Amino acid sequence: MRCAMQVARRLRSRSGMRARMLAAAVVISGAVLAAAPIAATVAAAAAPEPAAVTPELVAAAKQEGKVVFYTSIELQTAEKIGEAFEKAYPGIEVQVERSGAERIFQRLAQERGSGIHAADVVEASDMTALVLWKREGWLAPFVPSDVAKWPADQRDPDGCFATERFTLSPIGYNTRLVKPEEAPKSFADLLDPKWDNKIVKAHPGYSGTIMTVTFEVSRDLGWEFFQKLAKQHVMQVQSGADPPKRVAQGERPVMADGGEYTLMQIAAGGAPLAPIYPSEGTPLIPGGAGLMKDAPHPNASRLFVSFLFSRDGQQLLADMARIRSFHPDVKLPQGMTPLSEIKTMKPDTEAQLKEVDTIKQKYAEYFGL
């Protein structure tokens, strides 16, 4: 209980800052497209031409010798990305600063307010953060050559960011504790009394992934679902990476949400975990990345962003981390279900922007956090 109260205090302290930025944000325009749309804010100059990696860029990046990467990707995955970049470009160190998307949002706002410009590249599993950072003028237009291959709805029209990854949030279960035929097949099944005290889930006030999940589920199933789920004595954790770990350890047999990529990583290592894609639809969570306008290492940051969006970088995310990609040349690892075979819930960044505070308030009301 004490841990839960500490979590609640930390989460509430962040809500005011985001609310002020949301209040200042311009209403996003544009149609919501089929997968994970990136809506534009105010009209701006057209995106710059796609930029290839040149020997001159590599040389300049090595002169700087460092890139600082703020990310909400699970820590071990983020560090492996950094290690892969360092191997590809010896002499350039990647400083990974990993936290939940909501904490990155808060940290960046606090740093900017104090005149601190520490981050080179920013990445978050909550696309509303990228939209607001662009609105504040913090992101530099930069389009790596591979991003030109992305679906148009996955690229900011002004070139300030793009969807560098996406994942799903399935239900998951411990295969040693739950028989496949007895596992929940839908969100509605989680409300069965037999799962009382047996479910773990993450918090939308910490995790950008879970913020998006909560938006999509509450929109499609109604807040009544969460009101009923809260009565199941759910174990509450912070990060979207936490529920699969708790289930693998046997602390709870079932997870109500959490990142598919973490679940698949752990399962690939031999843990007794299996995903279930709910019959109502599985939440789809895009994550975006962009370059800071006043990055302290501007050339290294451009090289790092180019690597992150390259075919090799994206395939690395898929193979190593089971993260899904919009790069047309990236192949899914063996054992992952193709997106075409999964019914998904659709992100809507425009609508989610308007619901952030409501999501936090209602979640706190139902779960007491």
**CATH architectural type of the largest domain:** 3-Layer(aba) Sandwich
Largest sheet: 7 strands, mixed
Shape: globular
Low-confidence segments, given as residue ranges, are 1-17, 22-44
| Fraction of residues in helix | 40-55%
Instruction: Give the CATH H-level superfamily of the largest domain.
Output: Periplasmic binding protein-like II
Question: What name does the CATH topology of the largest domain carry?
Answer: D-Maltodextrin-Binding Protein, domain 2
Task: Characterize the structure shown.
With 369 residues, this protein is of the alpha/beta class. The chain folds into two domains: 2-26 and 33-42 and 50-166 and 286-342, D-Maltodextrin-Binding Protein, domain 2 (3-Layer(aba) Sandwich); 168-284, D-Maltodextrin-Binding Protein, domain 2. Helices cover 40% and strands 15% of the residues. It contains twelve helices and twelve strands. Strands 1, 2, 3, 4, 5, 11 and 12 form a seven-stranded mixed beta sheet that branches. The protein has a five-stranded mixed beta sheet with strand order 8-7-9-6-10, with helices on one face. Helix 6 (208-221) packs across helix 7 and helix 6 (208-221) crosses helix 12. The longest helix is centred in the first third of the chain and has 23 residues, at 2-24. The protein is globular, with a radius of gyration of 20 Å. The N and C termini lie close together (10 Å). Mean pLDDT is 88; it is low at 1-17 and 22-44.
